[in-house]
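Supplementary notes for students who missed Thursday's class. We covered one full example, reproduced here. Read the sequence, then the structure, then the short commentary at the end.
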Amino acid sequence: MSTSTIEAPTTFEALGLAPALLEAVRDAGYAHPTPIQAQAIPLVLKGRDVIGLAQTGTGKTAAFTLPIIHRLLGGPRRLRALVLTPTRELTAQVKESFAGYARHTELRVVDVFGGVALGPQEQALRRGVDVVIATPGRLIDHMERQNVVFDDLEVLVLDEADRMLDMGFAPQINRIVAEIPRYRQTLLFSATMPPEVEALARKYLRRPTVVQVGRRTEAASTVSHAVYPVPRERKGALLVELLKREGMDSVLVFTRTKHGADKVVRTLQREGIEALAMHADKTQAQRTEALEKFKRGEIRVLVATDIAQRGLDIAGISHVINYDVPGQPEDYVHRIGRTGRAAATGDAFTFMAPDEIAMVRLIERVLGQPIPRISVPGYDFGTVAAD
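Structure (token representation):
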């Protein structure tokens, strides 16, 4: 593996993208590529295999979406690009990105994921498609029904590779890759690079160039952090208290369990605060509805388990609140990356019960910096204990 040392272009025009793509980028309101885009796009355009490493919220999706669309322009209507993702939400998000940047082209993009009927996906695939974005399990369902043919595949993308391996998708990935052409361009994008991902890269990528922006466990610099010491039984009351403050416009709350998410929603609704839960026990329709209402501002608070720590690209999330301290430092980085995206700013608050102090200290060691503590009178367990 080699590391990119190219001088990064400062404008999308300098990247050499097709006029239709530049028009779509302008439509989206972007003037300058992010560091991961500026470094990765020229390499992808040259046909190189690339490993892209950057914290959540830095524009990794466009770093592969834009050059793939550029490559496919003017080609035959065949399945030529495949993107594998770990979750339904991320699949839909990547499809939205492709559709947005391909809006001035005739490319067809289909997303494929579980939890919904096979029929409409089958019909869409059989009508002809240029790009498929899929979760591994559902894609294999379509492979077994011969709804997809990989004979002409030119590009494979493994998106959020670390998360896919965490979720146990390695056997499915191996099965899918065994069915696609050996000579192809392979792109791997990930927020972290544990040994399992390095092994995956060695197996499927040919002399890849590594593009890394920031330290692997570094949180986005556009996010302000704070820890709120609070007894576990007072977390619900503290959340209500904070949501009464100005500026808490669009708040994503993370809980450790599905039961915990539902409990937080009930607490907020009793206080007249519109909120919905999003977790694996919800149907796909319920999850989609909750996400869309949150995007449109119909609800101010979305309460989710870690199913939402990847794949949510929602403009304007003002605050991420870790109602429960995440179990791994990397999860902290992914969670808070839901705000402060694309150079915007945001706030990340973490509620720390006494039994979570050690985990917060571990997160601080991994981040390489302390996180400021904010004591709210009547809620800080040190103050409560003194009372």
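Commentary. The chain has two domains: 2-213, 223-386. The radius of gyration is 21 Å. If anything here is unclear, bring it to office hours.
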